[in-house]
Amino acid sequence: MIPAELLSKVRHIEIVTNRLVNEVMAGSYHSVFKGRGMEFEEVREYQPGDEIRTIDWNVTARTGTPFVKTFVEERELTVMLMVDLSGSTEFGTGARLKSELAAEICALLAFSAIKNNDRVGLTIFTDRVEKFIPPKKGKNHVLRVIREVLAYKPEHKQTNIPAAVEHIMRVMGRKSVVFLLSDFFQTNLRKPLGILNRNHDLIALRTRDPRELEMPPVGIVPFEDPETGEVVFVDTFDEGFRTRFRNVARQSQEKQEQLFNQLKIDFVNIDTDKPYLEPIIQIFRRRASRY
Q1: What is the dihedral of CA 237, 243, 244, 249, to 10 degrees?
Q2: Which of 27, 121, 197, 226 could be disulfide-bonded to 87 (CB atoms 3.0-4.6 Å)?
């Protein structure tokens, strides 16, 4: 039986994201993700203005009359949501945790997909793939995806993006749109992300919290690594420490962004203390401008 609190959260997310989809997202999504290509529909007699390259020479030779092939856009897509639920995503100093933010973004993307009759799947991972839901269509399926992201209790705390990529490469045969939601607290990602991006249409959504980028002076506080459990105490009144913290965080962010750019991976930052719709719309607009 699904707890009432979880149902309430799912219902709230459904209402909020459905409104955003209907009012803002649907057109942007459709303009960017147009399908896998063109699919043969039928042959018909040649008409003045038709391109010569569309002539079906076999039918033309058999009938003695010029015929051309016609095509329609193969609209249906498969969308895979890859969600990092390692220990570091259970953090947030604003209105929501990074994991809760991921659930809302998944809902927004999933409802946008099914509105365009696309299939949606889910992969939840930590240092291993913990949950896989094969792509399907329909509102009930999307609600299940949202429930899983909100309620799933990972068995592990650490992160292994390469293992998740290996899983996607094994189970997703046809080219798909892959949204990878993570804080990307891991190094050595060039090879796995490059492989994933070459074989699928990859978009990276990096979740962040302001306290991961800038440390306020609040005294001596314990810092716990959410993935290893290690605890250290630091004096946040120490200006030198805050400067080093800020510089390391900035350098890490910039290094990740350089990697995304070098691999030609579309990415966007999603912050726990800011609205998430506009950054997603912006990345869709950037993609649309290239087509």
Answers
A1: 110
A2: 226
